[in-house]
Specification:
It is a single chain. This protein is mainly α and 417 residues long. It folds into four domains: 31 residues, no CATH class; 203 residues, no CATH class; 117 residues, no CATH class; 30 residues. Helices cover 53% and strands 3% of the residues. The chain contains 19 helices and four strands. The strands form two sheets. A two-stranded antiparallel sheet has the order 1-2. The chain has a two-stranded parallel ribbon with strand order 3-4. The radius of gyration is 31 Å and the shape is elongated. The relative contact order is 0.09. Pfam families: DUF247 (PF03140). Keywords: Membrane, Transmembrane, Transmembrane helix.
Length: 417
Amino acid sequence: MTELTVVMEDHGSTNIDVEALEQRMKAKLRSDSPLSAQCCIFRVPELLRKHKPEASDVVSIGPFHHSSSKLFANMKDVKQWYLNSLLLRKNISLKALIQGIDSITWFEKRARDYYAESFNHLDQNQFIEMMIIDGCFLLELFQRRSNIFPDSDKVNVLNDPLSNMGCMIQYLCHDLLLLENQLPWFVLESLYNLTCYERGSLTRLVLNFFISGLSSLAHNCNGYRNHSHDNEILHILDLIRSAIVVPLHKFESIEQEITLPHATELFEAGIQFKRSLVDINEPLFRNRIAFEQCYHGRDYKVTSYASLMDNLIASSKDVVFLSDNEIIRNWLSAEDASQVFSKLVNDTLIVDFCYGRLCAAVNKYYKVRWNQWLARLKRDYLSNPWKITSLVAAFILLVLTLLQTTYTIQQYYSPPK
C-alpha cells in the first residue's frame, strides 16, 4: 500500500492511500461518451424551461415521463386497447409482432441511443415493451384519424375517449410535439411496416393527423407531405419542424444576428409583408427551438425565425398590424403576444442566423429617405381611387394657377403695343 503524507498548515499532517484513491477514481472513468452520436431526444434545458414549464396534458410517450403512472393512468388503458385493436385488425399476434422486429437486441440498443439519458431503471423487456405499446398507440391513433378503414371495418368512435371529445385532438397534438415526448422514427417505421392497414407513406399519415388537429400547419405542411423524406426524420417533432422550415433554404445565413426596425415602422417605410398565417403557439415554438439548441444535426431556422419576429414585434401595435394583415394568427391578447417571441429567444444561442442577408437588405432599403417619402406619398395620397382623383385634380388646379399667374406677370411687364 502506498501512502502519501500531506502536511497541512496549522492542522498537522494526514495520510492518503494513493492506491485506494486511484482504484476509486479509475472505477468511475468512462471509455465512451455518455451520449451517442445518434442522440436527438432530450429534456428541455432548464434555461428554456424556466420561462414556461413544459409538461404533457393527457399522454406520456417514451421513457422521460414513463414513471408518471398516476398522472396518465387512464391513457395507459387506452394504449392497451389501441394495441389490441391494431393487432386484431391486422390479424397478427403479439408474439408475431415482437418476433417481426429485426434483431430485438439491436432494436433496443439503437432506441436507447436516441435519448440523452440512460434510463437504467428500465430493463430490456420493460424498455422494449414501452416502445411497442407507445409506438402502436401512435400508429392506431393516426390511422383512426385518417379514416382509411372501409365501412365494414370502421372502429366505433362512440366509445373512444380520444374521438368523442372535441378538444382531445388539440391536447394530443400539443403533447406529441413536446421534445420529451418523442419516439425514435425508426421505431414507428418498424412497427408501421408490421401493422399498417394500408401501405403508404408514414410521413403523410403523421402530417395529416397534425394538420387535422392544428389547422395552422396546413399552410406549411401541404407541400411537404407530397414527398417522402422518411429516411431523414429523427422523430415526430423533427418531421413537423422540417415541414415548416422547408421554404427557408433560399435564405442565406450569416454568423451574427442583425436587428430590424419594428413591423409598423417598416410598413410606413414601404416594406411589404407576405401573408403567412403563422400561429403564435408558444409551446410548439419552444420545443422546436429546444430541439435546435440541443441537437447538433439541425440548423437554427426556427430559432432564427423567433429572433426575427422578436425584432419585428415591440408592442401590441405591431401584433395588431401583423395579425390584421394575416402575417400571424394570434389567439392571445395583443399585449401577451408581444412578449411571446422575446421569451422564446431569451437564453438561446444562434450560431447561423438564417435571415441575415434578408435583414441586411431590408435595413439598406429602410435607411434610404427617398423610399420612406415615396411610401408616405403612396399611403397618404395614392391608396384609393378617390385620393388619386383628388390629387390629380389638385395638381391640375395648381398647374392652371401657375399658368394664369405666369400669363398675368407677362401681361404686366410686356403690355400689348
